Structure formats: structure tokens, C-alpha cells
Amino acid sequence: MQEERRLAVLRAIVEDYVATEEPVGSKALVERHGLNVSPATVRNDMAALEDEGYLTQPHTSAGRVPTDKGYRLFVDRLTTLRTMSAAEKRAIAGFLDGAADPDEIVARSVRLLSQLTRQVAVVQYPTLSRSTVRHVELVALTAERLLAVLILSSGRVEQRVVELGEPLVDDDLAALRSKVGRAATGSVISDAATALGALAESESGPAAAVAGVLVEALEDHRSDSRVAVGGAANLARYGDHFDSAVRPLLEALEEQVVLLKLLGEASDADTVTVRIGAEGPIEQFSATSVVATGYGPHDDALAALGIVGPTRMDYPGTMAAVRAVARYVSRILDEN
Amino acid sequence: MQEERRLAVLRAIVEDYVATEEPVGSKALVERHGLNVSPATVRNDMAALEDEGYLTQPHTSAGRVPTDKGYRLFVDRLTTLRTMSAAEKRAIAGFLDGAADPDEIVARSVRLLSQLTRQVAVVQYPTLSRSTVRHVELVALTAERLLAVLILSSGRVEQRVVELGEPLVDDDLAALRSKVGRAATGSVISDAATALGALAESESGPAAAVAGVLVEALEDHRSDSRVAVGGAANLARYGDHFDSAVRPLLEALEEQVVLLKLLGEASDADTVTVRIGAEGPIEQFSATSVVATGYGPHDDALAALGIVGPTRMDYPGTMAAVRAVARYVSRILDEN
DNA sequence: CTTGGCACTCTGACTACACGAGTGCCAGAC
DNA sequence: GTCTGGCACTCGTGTAGTCAGAGTGCCAAG
Hints:
Two copies of one chain form a homodimer.
Chain A: H1 2-20, H2 26-32, H3 39-51, E1 55-56, E2 65-66, H4 68-77, H5 86-96, H6 102-117, E3 120-124, E4 133-142, E5 145-152, E6 157-163, H7 170-184, H8 189-202, H9 205-222, E7 227-230, H10 242-252, H11 256-263, E8 273-275, E9 288-295, E10 303-310, H12 315-335
Antiparallel strand pairs in A: 1-2, 3-7, 3-10, 4-5, 5-6, 8-9, 9-10
Chain B binds a DNA duplex (30 and 30 nucleotides) through residues 1-2, 23, 25-28, 37-41, 43-44, 46-47, 57-63.
């Protein structure tokens, strides 16, 4: 019974604090929320919650503020995931419809997500392990340097420069092209990589070089680890905590590796992962939370998307937005 | 004679203000710089400079601060463009060497430039109007939808999705491929665009659709207007003026169009253009300066690069860095 | 277990005030 | 005509003191 009320108090504190950015006191709390108890009772509960580590006071005789642990409890036990309104759903669908190739889809998602949540959005490019090799093209740049282009069924194109180490004449190029083409064209990328790997072993000289580079390109494509970022302007809303929160984030936004690490473990589709403050893998982001989820065609989580924001954020709304976008993007990928 | 000293005073004020970020007063000035006159004399000069609009006081009885007009004069008449030290030159060369395709070069330049200047760097992708079409590839995505891929001699690849409006069978695809290929392959992109335009006119149905889309793609490629941005973390150093300067910039960084407008008129190679505060084309950037120049192979200015920073910046150093990077990038493009 | 009362603490806003940096101007020196 | 020293004046900044308000903790009674 008391336990239940305590949770209600915690929830109310989180909601108020998120809304006002000010430590919330007992009196204001009973007034704004319909708690049918006196401020004194709430104070006792708050003291207990503070003992258990869910709240802190910035200083004696100020209101309480949730700790990371408090947010954690709030997210785990007190959040009923909002569902998006019909209008919101239409807006999402409208925003994403008509995007054809994966790059376009990602670009639009990142924009959409940052607008919906008013946070910095991060979307990993989908890995497309099921795609097949449509075509391999070799273009001579100089006598000893080729451009190898892989066209994949997903609509993605991978290109690499190959240093041959020895000059090549036109006839050789045609031969090389058909040899490599035969090995790779039409196969799923893992099979193509195997075939090209074998080619790299058995051949020597230019053919081996080209095959080797193509294997690399396919590997990169499979574990495509690029990410798109959007909504950096939302960082302007952080207000204070500039040095503690905004600066590390700004630095990270240009480091693909760091961003990937942030999204990292959120690879389950249909589970929205929330990493709060110091729970995350990166030290400097202790004032930052990540809300992320996996997405991909066929409920097969192939990539992650999410947002990065201050620990003090509207978790229910944000989680709902992240989930909704992930679902729609997955559906669109499905259709292609 | 007095005129000369006045300019010396202006220069000293700009230098001090840039270094300290604090309004500079007459006494401190004569001490720090070797002006062989008394503070009172300097005060007279300062009053004159203020009358002419080169300086302002934040409030009565504070030091003076340069106005945009003051910076302008400083840049136009008082700046001897620093040359980079041998070590700096080596560093630049080392950083850029080994980049093969244009994307890589741009990525490295943007990074280099932001590190050298500690500002936000903006680099336009080089337009490659002289490149030729190496190959055209058509890939069926669905019965009514094609992916068209253009491989260009520059190493760049353009891809488009084409909606055909009617189903296509395999034989048609092969015919279409060779028809389009014959029209475009091997030509400089402007010729290829003309040939494909003719094709779009004379044919109907799928062939016209494909040709039309390819013409568009070539146009886009010719006036390739993408830009790369880097060093956003340097925005953190703006200190105050957060709302007036950082926020609009953050918003702009995701808008390609705005960035292009910023670089816009700086398309002369070997002339470093400086746009100070409200001189620029964008209203919200009145607290921001742009230092930019053109670059490209063969002294043929094909694209622009530069930095964006607060009006209060080290102009000589920044201009030198921008020029140096532009030169090295041009040279590397030359070699390819 | 809840509640009202009470004493206590701390912040934030406001005022007052002295200090220092800087200015403008004037009269005299070069 | 130009420079200089002196002097009165202006403001912004930092310090100290005061005060009201919000919030707490605890205790005793319901």
C-alpha cells in the first residue's frame, strides 16, 4: 500500500521535474497531482526514496531530483508506452513514404526522429546481408589502378580503388572483368565473398588483387557500420550543463565509432532499450541517455536507430516515437 | 602620420580583443604593444576611430571593441597573410596524401581544416564537369522499377530509381541497357546529357523514362552541390553568444542549401574571401564570419571550401590555413 | 500509518557600497 | 598643430547584508 504510493510519488516527481527542470517539493507535488495525502506524508515517502537512492537533493531544503536509478525505475516499472495518435501515425507514414533506396530512407528517418523527439537522432544504415550481387564493374583509372564497383540488389553501390602493382592492357581488363563477374554475379553476398576469396587464393597478380579488394568491400557492406546523425540543433535546448553534456556530444557526433558504440547493444527489434546516464558504455556521457531499438525487414533486427538526449527527458514519449519510427522503417524495408 | 598610428591602434585593438575576448582600454594597449605615445593620445585616436565607425564601446567607460567595419579594415589593409611554416606544410601534405577518390579527399580536407583553424569547416564536393561516363548499369528492382547506375571516370557513382509505369521483361531490359549505354558511354557528361535528352524525346515508355532520369542525374552531378561539414565541436568554444551565434549555426549545418549559400560567392581560386558578420547573405549569421576560397584542379575554380566562425577570430591565421588547404587539395586533384 | 505544527536551513533576489578601469576634456608643453 | 598630464566623471563588478519564500526534518497527537 505505501509501496504503491511511493511509486506514484516517484512518478510524479519525474514527470514534474522533466516538465519544469526544477527540483520538486512536497507541497507543489500534492497540489499538481491528485495525491490524496498531505505534504508531510509525501515528505516521508520522499525521504525513504532518497535513502534507497532514487532521489537526491541538490542542497538541503531544496526539492528533490530523480537520480539515474530513479529514472531507471520510472522507465522499467512506471512507464506505459504511449501509442502514437492516428494523426502522428499518418505524419510518420507520409514522411517516410516514397523513399526508395536505403540511403534515402535513412536520411528521412533521421530527420523524422529528431523532429518527433526534439533530440539528436542517430540511425545506423541497414545491413543487408541478404542482398545479392547484381553486377561488378571494373573501370581503368590509370594503367595500374582500377576502380571496382559492386552493384547490389539492395540498391547500394560499393566502390573501391584497386592498386594493381603492374600495368594492365585492355584485353586483360575484359578478361578480368568476366572472370570476376562470373565468380560473384547473382550470388548472395556471403557466397560471393567465398567465391571471390577462392579466386584470390588461386590466382595471382591483378586478378588476386581485385578479388581481394572485392572481398573486403563485401565484408564492409555486410557489417555496414555507418550512421547518420540529425537534429544537432536540438542540443541548443540543453540550457545549462553545456560543458558536461553538449561538448562531449558534439565531439562524438563526428565519430562514427563512438555513435555505433552508443547504439551498440540495442539490436533487438521491438524492444526499446533505454540506457540512462552512466549506465552507458561511454564515460563522458554520464549526463546523457540513449533510447534505441533495432529495426530491419522481417522482424530481423539488422541495424539500430535511436536518440541521444539529456537524462532529464520525456521517456515515455521518446520511447514511443523511437518504436514507431523503427516499425515504419522496417515495414518500408519489407516492401522493397 | 597620425593616420598611420591610428591604423596601428586599430590593429592592436583587434589583436588584443581576439586574444582576450575583453574590451581593450587605452592603458593596457600602450603597455602590451610598443606604441611610443601616452594613453591619452591613444584615447584621442580611439575616439576618432569610434566616430568613423570602426570601434564601439559596450558601455560608457569600458574599453573598445572592433565593429564589423573595424574587422573589415583590419582584414583589407592590416593583414599580411601569414605563410605556413615548413612543419605545418608537411603536416598538411601528410594528412591529405594517399586519399584517392574525391569523397575521401573531401572528408580529409574538412577534418584538416577544422583542426587547423579550430573552427567549423565546410567543404563543397568538387564538381567534375570534365568527367566522362564509363558505364551505365540498369538493375531491375521490381517489374516496374529500375535502378539506374552511372559510373563516371572521376570515380563517382550516381544512382537513381526509375519508375517505369509499365512492366518490363528481361529481353526488353537488355535492349534498353544497350540502347542507353550506346548513347552515353564514353562521352563527357555534358555530351552524354545531350544524347540522353535526345533519346528521351525520340523514344517513349521505359526508354524515355530511363533517359530522362539519367539526364537529371548528370545535371545533378555537374552542379554537384553537396557539402561536407566538420569540427562542429569547435562551436563549444563560442562561450557566450550561445543563442545569437551557435544555435543558428547548428541549425544551418544540416541544411546543405544554407551552407552552399554561405560559401557561395567565394569561387575564385587563390583569392581568400572574407565575409564579416552582416556582410553575409544570411540574416541570422550576423555574429558570424566566413573565410572561404575556391579550389579545383588546374587553377580552375570548381568548388569552394572554407570555415565559419565568430566575427571575433584570428583572421590572418585562418586565412592562411584556408588558402594552404585549398592549394594542397587543388594539387592533389591535379595529380589524379 | 498519517497528519499538523514548528523550528531550521538554504537559495535567490534585492539593495547598498566601494573599487577599479576606463573615458572625455582641457590647459599647457613641445 | 600635436602630444601629454591631470582631473572629474561614469559605469560595471564584486562584496556584504538583509529578507522573503520554499522546502525540509522531526515530533507528538490522531
